[in-house]
Amino acid sequence: MSGHKLLRRFLLGAVLLFFYFPILYMLVFSFNGSRSLTSFDGFSLQWYDKMFHDPNMLEAIYYTLITAVVATVISTAVGTITAIGLSKSRRIVREVVSQVNNLPIMNPEIVTAVGLMLFYVSLRIEKGFFTMLLAHIAFCIPYVILSVMPKLRSLDDNLADAAMDLGATPWQAMVKVILPQIMPGIISGALIAFTMSFDDFTISYFVTGNGVKNISTLVWTMSKRINPSINALSTIIVLMITITLLLVNLLPIIKEKTKTKTGQVWKHTTSIVALCFALLIGGGLYWLKSGTGNHMSSADAIARFGSDTLKVYNVGEYIDPQINTAFEERYGVKIIYDTFDSNELMYTKLQGGERYDILVPSDYMIERLLKEDFLQPLNHDQLPNLSYLTEELNSLSYDPDHTYSVPYFWGTVGIVYNKNNVDIEDLQKEGYNIFRNQKYKGRIYMYDSERDSFMMALKALGYSMNTDDEKQLYEAYEWLKKIVTTMKPEIVTDEVIDAMANGNKDMALVYSGDATYILSENEDMGYYMPSEGTNLWSDAMVIPKNAANPKLANEYINFILEYENSMRNTEYVGYTSTNGEVLEECSGEGGIYADNEAYLPRSGYEKDEIFHYNDKSRKLISELWTKVKIAK
Amino acid sequence: MKTFKRLTYPYMLWITAMIVIPMLLIVIYALTKQGNDVATLQFTLDNFIHFFTDADFLSTLWLSLKIACITTILCILIGYPIAYLIAASTPAKRNLYILLITLPMWINMLVRTYAWIGILSDNGLVNHVLQFFGIEPQKLLYTDFAVILGMVYNFIPFMILQIEASLAKLDRSLLDAANDLGADRLQRFLKVTLPLSLPGVISGITLVFLPAVSSFVIPKLMGGGAYMLIGNVIENQFITVGEWNFGSAISMIMACIIMISMYITRKLDKSDDAVSRKRGKV
User: Fold this and answer.
1) Residue B174 to chain A, least CA–CA distance (Å)
2) Which of A43, A207, A630, B234 has the fewest CB atoms found within 10 Å of its own CB?
3) Residue of A nearest to B137 (CA)
């Protein structure tokens, strides 16, 4: 018998360990002294400090809470009222409404999400907080109805009639007779609604926009780079939830114990506890709101620029946040800062009708945007700092006179390799073909970007990376496919940066700016630009035609070009500055990137090319790359 | 009573706008070509043909179904014994266990899954432990294994709770009766407990299989940037590629698969109900 007991204990213990170990692990690493998620280097509260000073995180917490609270209140009210109505409706009505009501519960979340997104886009409703809130209400109500309905079914139908016969109005009958009886159902419905909303990712991800993020979507955008602040945030959430659940579960027990002695006192205690809770949430929301919406009186900005908000859409992890804060302070405006992972994603958003004042796309995408008439000319009178641009960036083929664009960062693409494990002679001899050398099987990363991968393949084959010859593209496809089928590569996106800095594998194709970061973190790593040529790229700031605040946008571009801000940015991000003076200082003797071979792009090498937009090859490359990835 | 009936009208309007129209939009997008506006709406099956004639998409669909099935089976195999043990505990302990199992579900799914990345990565905790015992480090993260682990981790509580609920409802006197009639432990379990807990297992299957087959978060976090399940293909079509028509078609296909599998499980459930009802009469 005790053997059985032991086995039972063991099984339950093992499962609970499985549930709680990752949570514990996360908790421990939120106190880590370093950025690593794998080795613990001393106790520190720095990630909590960072979290409380990160406006993005505070804003995300604010939006998560306010959405959950409002969605819960509305959906509980609407759901309850509807359920009562349904219980008195004809059978056919009840059936149809319940079936439709069940759809969001039965359907995969992603389908509901996609449907709502198409709905908003068709109505040309701008995505943001409002759309997210509506969506949350929409998927919460069905759960409330589902949890209230059974209580109504077990309710005696005649009760309401009796009340009304005795002179109660229908409203009174509902509030005084029906509601108290179905209260447990309403409460559990509200709880489900709150958790559904609080935890939601999929639906929010598809219907939010304009820089509005909840905790889930924020974690999603940050999950590619190691960021222990996420752990700090999670630890706080875990703590809050544990305390709430403990209270909810302990209160009845305490109540039971104190009942006999102080029944009267207890009644007050319950309401006091409830009041404290409401105050806590309300106060928290107020504090978060004041912490995030804090900017100087903006009457001056409105007078000068016609508005006090600027919407910027930039690549993720591509700016020192202090720069935006500095801009906000100097001009008395508020920046709505949104990020994207890829040029294609940005383009899709633009097509979806979203409006921004500043975009930071890459060269070929700017070409495309120009061709499709998405951009407006810059106002050079507002851009005196254009003269600071480094010479190499004048006369870029896509916009030689900076009529539409001002370069933000620039660089090359190359191979980061572990100098201890990769023979430099192999690299020099084979160039990109080293990715097909069996010696390095299982030791390489491939970057999940169709452009850069096809660039590598085409260059390795001796073609131009701008080719639209189908035969050459198919050859490149075969070249890449062979890597996937014979070299056991790991196909990654930005997680490659921390992984290479950690020394997880020996070789990866990366952007020079990320290589700069990797090299400065790990001195075993080197950067190599193959002699077959590479991609010389630049990302630039542009103003879309439908921008609401072009005047302020021009001011922002000028601000970024300033010496101090360019310096800050390149130091923080690691990408190559477009400000000539900053560039010289950083790469010159004593500069912070002086010995970093990835920082300074090679110039004047004839086999290096700039990407051009080509609609014909774009579709084929995109299709072929999808096939490469699933070739495993 | 009329007054109460009217309470339903606002919600009818609301579901028409927020549920019915979005679903119709998916169908319309799925059946049309890109770049159409309402005036030149032209229906076509091209999107579906594209999907079903492409070996790569089909293999992704196959992989998604396979991963979802493995996840569901593992959830049953692990979840059933645990649910059984919980149901057999004293009421106080039972409540505690249920609280302990539901508690992690309150924590953001992304956050919980994110924690596994540190544990499974190449020089993460598991590999450190392996190395300590002199075992070669294994590639754990960004594999099928990691994706299945992530799914089991996230979805198994649903299975346990469903099975536990149906086991808790089990009438103990049936077991006593079986005992009196000479059934041994195993027979009692196979002939009484298991059949009567099947409805719980079946609703557990729906609750696990449905999110598992459509998830795109777990495969992306645990499978790496290039790991593709059918949910990722949809996300990719909508967010990155911008082919909403094709994306809608895949969404429709997925919704159909879910509907069919729900229908089958319901059927199983019903036939089972019928059996138990018959037994009840006898």
Assistant:
1) 23
2) A43
3) A504
For residue B39, pLDDT beyond 60: no
B97-118: pLDDT as tens digits? 888 888 888 777 888 888 888 8
Q: Is residue A477 part of a domain?
A: yes
Chain B partners of A490 at a C-beta cutoff of 8 Å? 142, 224
CATH classification at residue A615: 3.40.190.10
Strands A576-577 and A537-542: unpaired
Inter-chain contact A199–B118, Cβ cutoff 8 Å? no
Q: Residue B15 and residue A97: Cβ atoms within 8 Å?
A: yes
pLDDT tens-digit map of A324-339: 989 988 888 888 888 8
Domain, as residue range, for A165: 53-231
Q: Show residues of chain A in contact with B23, CB under 8 Å.
A: 103, 115
Predicted confidence band at B277 (pLDDT cuts at 50, 70, 90)?
very low
Are the CB atoms for B82 and A15 separated by under 8 Å?
yes
Interface mutation vs chain B, best among A47, A87, A110, A206, most B CBs within 10 Å: A110
- State whether A491 and A569 are in the same domain: no
Q: How many CB atoms lie within 10 A of CB A126?
A: 14
Instruction: Tell whether A543 and A517 lie within a shared domain.
Output: no
The reply to whether A18 falls in a domain is no
| ipTM confidence score | 0.88
Q: What is the DSSP letter of A216?
A: H
Phi, psi (degrees; rounded to nearest 5) at B23:
-65, -40
Q: What tokens were used for A406?
A: 């001002």
Q: How far is A238 from chain B (nearest CA, A)?
A: 6
pLDDT tens per residue across span A231-277: 888 888 888 778 877 777 777 676 666 655 555 555 566 667 677 77
Subunit contact B18:A502, Cβ cutoff 8 A? no
Cβ–Cβ contact B18 with A under 8 A: yes
Q: Are residues A100 and A133 in the same domain?
A: yes
Write down the H helix ranges in A154-226: 158-165, 170-172, 179-199, 202-207, 215-222
